[in-house]
Design a protein that fits this description.
This protein has a seven-stranded mixed sheet, sandwiched between helices. Strands 10-11-13-12 form a four-stranded antiparallel sheet. The chain has helices spanning 8-18, 23-26, 48-59, 83-89, 92-95, 107-124, 136-151, 164-174, 220-228, 330-367, 391-400, 409-412, 433-446, and strands at 128-129, 155-158, 180-183, 202-208, 232-237, 256-260, 276-280, 292-297, 303-308, 373-374, 382-386, 407-408, 422-426. By secondary structure, it is of the alpha/beta class. The mean pLDDT is 93. It folds into two domains: 84-340, 3-Layer(aba) Sandwich (Aspartate Aminotransferase, domain 2); 344-446, Alpha-Beta Complex (Aspartate Aminotransferase, domain 1). β8 (292-297) and β9 form a beta hairpin. The chain is built from 13 helices and 13 strands. α4 packs antiparallel against α10, α6 packs parallel to α10 (330-367) and α7 packs across α8. The radius of gyration is 25 Å and the shape is globular.
């Protein structure tokens, strides 16, 4: 039975109030050829039990990363999430909480956001962080816009080894603005050369670390070159667990850090929702987009938390707002904060070391297969393999053997024949020795 809360009499009364004779009159402005004459070709109603059974049947067709050896990465990583994180975020105080405009009744939510900001600032090596963005890609795009506002310049340089989805999102965000971005080609081997592009005309250089191919790099020199011409360095971090093992972007001289926090507390979930991170220097805080939660004291001198520097368009700033993103990924940022709190500094570092160690073991085992080469000499928990066959075909054959063997580079950077044999392989703490053995034996068979 369809859920129709209003009776025929009530609907007639509402139509009468607004002065139309029928439901069809409400759609008079829609051309007749654009309207449906009949129902959509979809299944009709069924019982709850039948619907559940149908969806379980559909779900069984998926090869789940949680039930099979999984080496997928390329911006979305499978990590273990403690069950307590899911338990806490489902408490009604958090799950039903909305925008904390009234601090006197939102202290719990505000404090959680404050702790989140503190954690993000600490791991990125920056001085201030916002209360999260939608995801890493939108955070990257907002960082470019922020850099243009700070420098009052209109052009950004995007690394060729920035994740293709992030480049595409930046392209979309900039297309109807006065700002633009030059995109460099991907560089699989060797270092990227930025010198000829860095000038007093650019607002920022955007690089990723580890980059799209998994390569780690020291960005200190690049930061110095940017600063010498008054430009900013924006560093993107796709795999936030890496910050437990490598030098932070802030230590290398980054001015803005845009990241994806999915690896901590947030499941893969077929691509979202995720949680974007954005951190910067204190001197740029008034140009930072999104929400900022601050600590203060009440009239009795007790510690309290409030939203502050609300330079969003729905407040007084209007067209001068720093961003049109009017919210934060509240539940995902809470999950991040809970997981990070459970890990602590020591646990976060141990998790990072475990990831790197497992990845090194995997790279060594895979490179022993005839015809297989690890392209990048340095990496955290993700590396690029060059196979003797088309990587997309190999992945399909691995999947048929019950192994999610990685992400073909050609799936994200198409129409470049020189990249068709490259395979991104990510190895996290969830990959067991048996999983790696299954990948190695299956890859040998496929090749």
């Amino acid at each position: 039975m369809r859920y129709m809360p209003h009776t025929a009499g009530e609907r007639a009364e509402m139509l009468g109030k607004i002065g139309v004779g029928s439901i069809d009159d409400l759609f008079a402005d829609i051309p007749k050829e654009a309207r449906l004459d009949d129902l959509l070709k979809l299944p009709l109603h069924a019982s709850e039990m039948e619907v559940e059974k149908n969806f379980r049947t559909l779900a069984s067709k998926n090869l789940s990363p949680y039930s099979t050896p999984c080496f997928l990465g390329a911006g979305a990583y499978q990590h273990h999430i403690p069950s307590v994180a899911d338990h806490i975020i489902q408490r009604s105080e958090f799950l039903t909480a909305y925008t904390p405009y009234q601090p006197e009744i939102s202290q719990g939510t505000l404090q959680a956001l404050f702790e989140f900001q503190t954690q993000v600032a600490l791991i990125t090596g920056m001085e201030v962080a916002n209360a999260s963005m939608y995801d890493g890609a939108t955070s990257c795009a907002e960082s470019i816009l922020m850099a243009c506002r700070v420098t009052r310049r209109k052009k950004a340089i995007l690394s060729g080894n920035l994740h293709p989805h992030y480049r595409e999102t930046a392209r979309t965000a900039l297309q109807f603005t006065e700002f633009s971005a030059s995109e460099l080609p991907p560089v699989v081997e060797g270092a990227e050369a930025f010198d000829e592009y860095i000038s007093e005309e650019i607002a920022c250089v955007v690089v990723q670390n580890p980059d799209f191919f998994g390569r780690l790099q020291d960005l200190t020199s690049l930061a110095e070159k940017c600063h010498a011409v008054g430009a900013l360095l924006v560093v993107v971090v796709n795999e936030v667990v890496s910050l437990g093992a490598v030098m932070s972007p802030g230590e290398m001289g980054a001015d803005i850090v845009a990241g994806e926090g999915q690896s901590i507390g947030v499941p893969l979930s077929f691509g979202g929702p995720y949680v974007g991170l954005l951190a910067t220097r204190q001197k740029f805080v008034r140009q930072m987009p999104g929400r900022l939660c601050g600590q203060t004291v009440d009239q009795d001198g007790q510690r309290g938390f409030v939203l502050t520097l609300s330079t969003r368009e729905q407040h007084i700033r209007r067209e001068k707002a720093t961003s049109n993103i009017c919210t934060n990924a509240g539940l995902c940022s809470l999950a991040f904060t809970i997981h990070m709190s459970l890990l602590g500094e020591v646990g976060f570092t141990k998790l990072a070391k475990l990831n790197h160690g497992e990845a090194v073991s995997a790279a060594e085992a895979l490179e022993e297969i005839e015809g297989v080469e690890v392209v990048n000499a340095s990496f955290f928990n993700e590396f690029t393999l060059r196979l003797p066959k088309n990587a997309a075909d190999v992945v399909e054959k691995l999947a048929a053997k019950g192994v999610l063997g990685g992400v073909p580079v050609s799936r994200l950077i198409p129409d470049q024949p020189e990249l068709e044999n490259l395979l991104l392989v990510a190895v996290t703490e969830t990959c067991s020795t048996a999983d790696l053995e299954k990948l190695v034996s299956s890859l040998k068979e496929v090749l």
